[in-house]
Design a protein that fits this description.
This protein has 13 helices and 5 strands. A 5-stranded mixed β-sheet has the order 2-3-1-4-5, sandwiched between helices. The radius of gyration is 20 Å and the shape is globular. The chain has helices at 30-47, 72-91, 109-126, 141-144, 157-160, 167-179, 202-212, 224-229, 235-246, 253-263, 269-276, 280-296, 298-311, and strands at 12-19, 50-57, 60-67, 103-107, 198-199. The protein is 49% helix and 10% strand. It is α+β, with helices and mostly antiparallel strands and 318 residues long. 40% of the residues are buried. It folds into 2 domains: 12-199, 2-Layer Sandwich (Alpha-Beta Plaits), CATH 3.30.70; 232-318, DnaA protein, C-terminal DNA-binding domain (Chromosomal Replication Initiator Protein Dnaa, Chain: A, Orthogonal Bundle), CATH 1.10.1750.
Length: 318
């Protein structure tokens, strides 16, 4: 059976899982887990990877991962290979630690980020590791609900952005959202994955497939669309391009800037927020709400198309 394609483009959003070989433990101690989190930090510092949620379990891990630089393979090679080397040295073993390739599902984040983060954070409870999710220290749940400060490589704003106008309200609402599912049956969003590759609507899949073509090479390294996606305009160029189309005084100007920068520019919430003097959660909310307007209003769709063409952005939603 052919392996799933590794589709990569700036700003792509993935659910990642990697399991221990023969389902054996990949974490044997607190120090192991701390080292793995250290490699998540170096993945962010060296390769720009952004983690939106994570959970470390005895024999596998889950990540919600964003790659602004279109470098998923590089990020995961660094993470898994570096950790394997340190684990083997620590425990005086050799050979593979992980079972084959990691699994990467390309996700339509606006539709599935909340559900996937909840699914990831519920894992320790489902596995019987704790009775109270807030007690589990090896997932990002405590950061999302305000019990721990988020490290620089973990961005909670995108997930929390849909839960409240202030951080404290969003944290409380998100905690209720996750813990409220403990006693109820919730659907596993990963059961909706198509072709072991996509989690999203048919429209999302068509857009990605149309822009990236139908590559024959499993590693999709030589796809022309992927090469074109390597060079995106800066935040300043996006702003100037929007102003050239509708004018800086237009009330839609900033909305379009935030929306295009987030959806097509491959920039993180923090990068956009720093540029426009906003919090990441505010950027997330504004971009999501304007995305809904663009989908619903034909004149905005036409303006979006004009701006995308002017800026040389490829129409790939993430």
């Amino acid at each position: 059976m052919a392996r799933p394609l590794r589709i990569q483009y700036p700003g792509a959003f993935y659910h990642i899982t990697s399991r221990g070989n023969e389902r054996k433990p990949i974490f044997k101690s607190k120090e192991d887990r701390q080292r793995f989190l250290g490699y998540l930090q170096s993945s962010h510092e060296k390769y720009g990877a952004i983690v939106h949620a994570y959970c470390l379990l005895p024999n596998h891990y889950h990540l919600l991962l964003e790659t602004p630089r279109s470098n998923l393979s590089q990020v995961l090679h660094h993470l898994n290979a570096s950790y394997t080397t340190s684990f083997n040295l620590k425990w005086k073993r050799s050979g593979h630690l992980f079972q084959g390739r990691y699994k990467a599902v390309l996700v339509e984040k606006e539709a599935y980020a909340k559900e996937l983060s909840r699914y990831i954070h519920l894992n320790p409870l489902r596995a019987g590791l704790v009775k109270d999710l807030a007690e589990y220290r090896w997932s990002s749940f405590r950061c999302h609900i305000g019990l721990e400060k988020s490290p620089p490589w973990l961005e909670t704003g995108m997930v929390l952005g849909d839960f409240g106008s202030t951080q404290s309200k969003a944290q409380r609402a998100y905690r209720s959202f996750v813990e409220g599912a403990v006693q109820s049956e919730i659907r596993n969003p990963l059961r909706e994955v198509i072709a072991s590759t996509f989690l999203g609507s048919q429209d999302f899949i068509r857009r990605v497939s149309r822009e990236l073509g139908k590559p024959q090479d499993e590693e999709v390294r030589d796809v022309p669309a992927l090469r074109a996606l390597q060079e995106n305009p800066s935040l300043e160029r996006i702003r100037k391009g929007v102003e050239e189309v509708i004018g800086p005084e237009d009330p839609l100007c900033e909305k379009f800037c935030l929306y295009l920068s987030r959806r097509f520019g491959g920039f993180s919430l923090k990068e956009i927020g720093d540029y426009y003097g906003m919090k990441g959660a505010t950027v997330s909310q504004a971009a999501r709400r304007f995305a809904e307007r663009v989908r619903a209003e034909t004149p905005l769709k036409k303006l979006q198309k004009e701006m995308i063409q002017k800026l040389g952005l490829l129409n790939v939603e993430t």
